[in-house]
């Protein structure tokens, strides 16, 4: 004998409605970029605009960071939002291969044209004989160009992407540690505010302690 389906109780309706209205996950890359831009903008603008003693400027910046964390976390916890991990550190490109381009089969007509034109080194004969100092200067210039090329490659392909990836990992990790956890905050304003208050304080309190400690040491030495 088959069992009759049990009627849906009112307590089951909110959870079912929550699953139906579940919001799409936030992009971790976009969220981290917004947080980093906000923190950098306030950290750079406040000392230049307020023009108070430096340690007071730092305290104002930390207070704004704390308030920013509080608002962002409270809103996302209340909405039941989640954040994805959608950014990976890619491999650096080989600029030498990019400069070479795709290898195409040699055309006999092009070969004859190159042979008729001669090597590009033949065009340097108009410079005349190079003296010892000129040769050293030319070698130094070539060395600077080579070093500059590889330094620019390292900066663009390794240093900047690595710094951006570390900023992404830090900002996205701090955000995901709160809103991806099971705090049972969706639809509960008080619980969302309480957890956001705890985590906002946990994220900014260590920086505040450092600022106050440095100010104390400087004031004792003055």
Describe this protein with a few key phrases:
222 residues; mainly alpha; flat
Q: How much strand content do the residues show?
A: under 5%
Count the strands? 0
Which regions are unreliable across 5 or more consecutive residues at pLDDT < 50?
Answer: 5-15, 17-21
- Inertia-based shape: flat
Structural class, from helix and strand content? mainly alpha
Oligomer: single chain
> How many distinct helices?
7
The string of secondary-structure elements, in order, is: HHHHHHH
The average pLDDT score comes to: 79
In short:
With 222 residues, the chain is an all-alpha fold.
Q: What would you note in describing this structure?
A:
By secondary structure, this protein is an all-alpha fold. Helices cover 70% and strands 0% of the residues. The protein has seven helices and no strands. Helix 2 (28-50) runs antiparallel to helix 3 and helix 3 (54-79) packs antiparallel against helix 7 (189-221).
Secondary structure blueprint with pairings:
Elements: H1 12-20, H2 28-50, H3 54-79, H4 95-100, H5 108-117, H6 132-179, H7 189-221
Helix pairs in contact: 2-3, 2-6, 3-7
């Amino acid at each position: 004998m088959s069992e009759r389906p049990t009627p849906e109780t009112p307590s089951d309706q909110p959870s079912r409605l929550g699953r139906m209205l579940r919001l799409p996950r936030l992009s971790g890359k976009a969220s981290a970029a917004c947080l980093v831009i906000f923190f950098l903008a306030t950290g750079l603008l406040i000392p230049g605009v307020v023009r108070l003693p430096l340690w007071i400027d730092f305290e104002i910046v930390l207070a704004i960071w704390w308030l920013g964390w509080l608002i962002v976390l409270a809103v996302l916890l209340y909405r039941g939002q989640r954040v994805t991990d959608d950014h990976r550190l890619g491999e650096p490109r080989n600029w030498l291969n990019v400069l070479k381009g795709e290898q195409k089969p040699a055309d006999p007509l092009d070969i004859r044209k190159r042979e008729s034109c001669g090597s590009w080194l033949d065009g340097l004969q108009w410079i005349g004989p190079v003296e010892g100092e000129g040769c050293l200067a030319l070698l130094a210039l070539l060395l600077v160009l080579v070093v500059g090329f590889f330094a620019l490659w390292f900066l663009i392909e390794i240093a900047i992407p690595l710094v951006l990836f570390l900023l992404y990992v830090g900002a996205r990790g701090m955000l995901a540690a709160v809103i991806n956890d099971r705090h049972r905050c969706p639809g509960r304003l008080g619980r969302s505010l309480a957890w956001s208050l705890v985590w906002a304080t946990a994220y900014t309190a260590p920086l505040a302690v450092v600022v106050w400690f440095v100010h104390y040491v400087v004031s004792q030495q003055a």
